[in-house]
Design a protein that fits this description.
Elements lengths: L1 H23 L6 H30 L5 E12 L5 E10 L2 E7 L9 H14 L5 E7 L2 E6 L6 H21 L8
Antiparallel strand pairs: 1-2, 1-4, 2-3, 4-5
Length: 179
């Protein structure tokens, strides 16, 4: 629901720019660049705002209650994208929950680097080791071992910010006034 509101807000901002810039003057820049900037503007706003909301949610996990968990499996998986697979259990109100995590390991880079990262993470969490589990008290099935910000969220915010700056720059280039 929030994402729809963000998208509508972004479109309204683009329409506002269209009215202010095109409604009063004709752009002296190449029209395709201007039109592309109007299309990219709401997309970039949407990316920045929606990913910022996700970032706030990810940072909120750190304030959740914790419980002790136990690693039951730690293996390296994947052929194209090699990553760790850590299975762990935790208990809340006499109910045992099982979760699987990849510990936010990035799935890019060469295979050797992916394997090294995955192997290191599985060695840091051997079977039987105790881990801290952050869980949602309203829904204990939502839990994580690593309350960190995902790398792709930061990348999307950065990419959206660059698109936003470029589109605003293209829209705000000096305009010739028709006499």
């Amino acid at each position: 629901m929030i994402q729809i509101a963000v998208l509508l807000f972004s479109v309204l901002i683009a329409l506002f720019f269209w009215y202010v810039v095109v409604g009063k003057t004709r752009p002296s820049i190449i029209r395709p660049l201007f039109v592309i900037s109007l299309i990219v503007l709401p997309i970039s706003f949407y990316l920045v705002i929606s990913q910022s909301i996700d970032l706030q949610k990810q940072l909120g996990v750190q304030s959740r209650p914790t419980v002790a968990g136990t690693v039951t499996e730690a293996v390296v998986v994947g052929e194209r994208a090699i990553r760790p697979k850590i299975t762990y259990t935790y208990e809340i109100d006499s109910i045992t929950y099982i979760q699987i995590t990849h510990l936010n390991a990035p799935m890019f880079g060469n295979k050797r680097k992916q394997y090294d990262v995955a192997h290191t993470l599985t060695e840091e969490h051997p079977v039987g080791s105790k881990v801290v589990v952050y869980y949602n008290p309203l829904n204990p099935t939502e839990a994580t071992m690593s309350p960190t910000v995902k790398w792709d969220t930061l990348g999307k915010i950065g990419f959206g910010a660059v698109l936003l700056m470029l589109s605003l720059f293209a829209l705000l280039l000096p305009l010739k006034r028709k006499r």
